[in-house]
Amino acid sequence: MSAAEPSSRRAGRVARAAGMLFRPGETWTAIDAEPATVSELYLGYIAPLAAITPVCGAIGLAIFGASIAGIHLKPSLVETLVGAVIDYGLALIATYVLALVIAGLAPAFGGVGNRVQALKLTAYAGTALWVAGVFALYPTLGFPLAILAGLYSLYLLYLGLPRLMRAPPERSLTYFAAVLLAALALALLLRLGGAFVR
């Protein structure tokens, strides 16, 4: 393995993230045609991008703490690091579980239940939310920007869903609504599970 390979992979990851953020239509077309495996998606894209929020969030909490309703909180360094590790693990799990749900629902909406295509969909649709994690360096700013980025990630999911899962256009909105409900339920379950583990 040459020294240029990690650099070229990083450049490819940055280019793909930029494509998802600024040219999602043509980027989904390219993603649809690309062969991929679960390990390639995790090692090459999901794991590095999903780490942005927990790492930046841990740094932000360690430096600034958090303010909730005028109350300033600054957890211990150990609590902060444990929370970051749990959040990272939950992000990795949620990405895969949501892909399984998307693949499982696809036939009900006239689509094809391909798990790798579904994982590509969840991986790349999450780009906006993961990249916005850099704003967690300053927790007060990070939360509202995470909400905006989450909404954009949902838009990316909406665009990619019929393309990657082969759902007919007339059923793609109901398919998206079902996926959205499943994603909200999954987020709630994982958040409760994360709170229990902490």
Short descriptors:
198 residues; mainly alpha; two-stranded antiparallel sheet; 9 helices; 2 strands; 3% strand; globular; disordered N terminus
Task: Compute the number of structural domains.
Answer: 1
Question: What proportion of the residues form beta strands (DSSP E)?
Answer: under 5%
Main sheet?
2 strands, antiparallel
Helix content: over 70%
Radius of gyration: 17 Å
The secondary-structure class comes to mainly alpha
Order of helices and strands: HHHHEEHHHHH
Give the low-confidence spans.
Answer: 1-5
Can you count the beta strands? 2
> How many alpha or pi helices?
9
Overall pLDDT: 90
Through-space gap between termini? 40 Å
Provide a short characterization of the protein structure.
By secondary structure, the protein is mainly α. It has helices spanning 4-22, 24-33, 38-50, 52-64, 77-105, 115-125, 127-131, 139-165, 169-197, and strands at 66-68, 71-73.
Explain the overall architecture:
The chain has helices at residues 4-22, 24-33, 38-50, 52-64, 77-105, 115-125, 127-131, 139-165, 169-197, and strands at residues 66-68, 71-73. With 198 residues, it is mainly α. Strands 1-2 form a two-stranded antiparallel sheet. It contains 9 helices and 2 strands, in the order H-H-H-H-E-E-H-H-H-H-H. Helix 5 (77-105) packs across helix 6 (115-125). The radius of gyration is 17 Å and the shape is globular. It has one domain.
